[in-house]
Specification:
This protein is of the alpha+beta class. 49% of the residues lie in helices and 16% in strands. It contains 9 helices and 6 strands, in the order ααααααβαβαββββα. α1 runs parallel beside α3. It is globular and about 45 Å long. It starts with 5 loop residues before the first helix and ends with a helix.
Length: 208
């Protein structure tokens, strides 16, 4: 029997908790229930790597009920940074294909925008959340300005890249379109935002 000590024991405990929460989420997604996935998602938020395991498990399901998709859509909207929490773009994409309600009515490419830190352009590691509203994208870019400034992207997303397009609503209405970034062809920067005045002042002071 393997004996675990100190930090090693704590890591093992966290891994067991993550695996248990991931399995609970997978089981919840197999039900036709809106409450179970929400409670299971809350438990995942308390773990390390739980979301990564959960999305990989869900990706293996043949499908989920509409009630589960409705529940997960709420989780997606409220979480704000779920892909970063999941930590794996491949696991995120695979899980979202199952959990999001893809609009089959989308037959043609659509133009979408995204506001992000400049680093996203430098690495070409485009994220999942885009918007059909350029103004909203610029607002997000403004909120992400750092020492590198920020950028506003534009791309034309083909229908098979669209994982979910949110319908107009009064609550959190951002014209959001969830995109599989691996299927984007040409992304261009249509606006660059300079670093904030505070960052620029600090940089100038250092350069003196």
């Amino acid at each position: 029997m393997k004996v675990e000590f100190g930090p090693q024991r704590e890591v093992a405990r966290e891994r067991r908790a993550a695996r248990a929460a991931a399995e609970t989420f997978r089981s919840a997604c197999r039900m036709a229930d809106t409450a179970a996935p929400i409670f299971a998602a809350h438990d995942l938020n308390l773990t390390i790597d739980g979301w990564t395991m959960a999305m990989r498990k869900v990706a293996k399901l043949p499908g989920v009920a509409d009630e589960v998709r409705t529940a997960f859509e709420g989780v997606w909207i409220e979480h704000k940074a779920l892909p970063q929490t999941i930590g794996s773009r491949a696991a995120t994409t695979a899980g979202l294909r199952v959990l999001l309600r893809r609009q089959v009515s989308i037959q043609a490419p659509i133009t979408v925008f995204r506001g992000a830190m400049a680093r996203e352009w430098q690495t070409r590691g485009y994220a999942f959340s885009w918007t059909t509203d350029r103004r909203i994208a610029r607002d997000f870019a403004e909120g992400h300005r750092n020492f590198d400034g920020a950028v506003v992207f534009e791309t034309v997303a083909p229908p098979d890249a669209i994982l979910w397009a949110r319908t107009a609503e009064n609550f959190y209405d951002e014209g959001e379109v969830v995109i599989n970034p691996h299927k984007l062809q040409r992304v261009r920067v249509i606006e660059r935002l300079a670093p904030t005045a505070t960052v620029q002042s600090a940089t100038n002071a250092v350069s003196r």
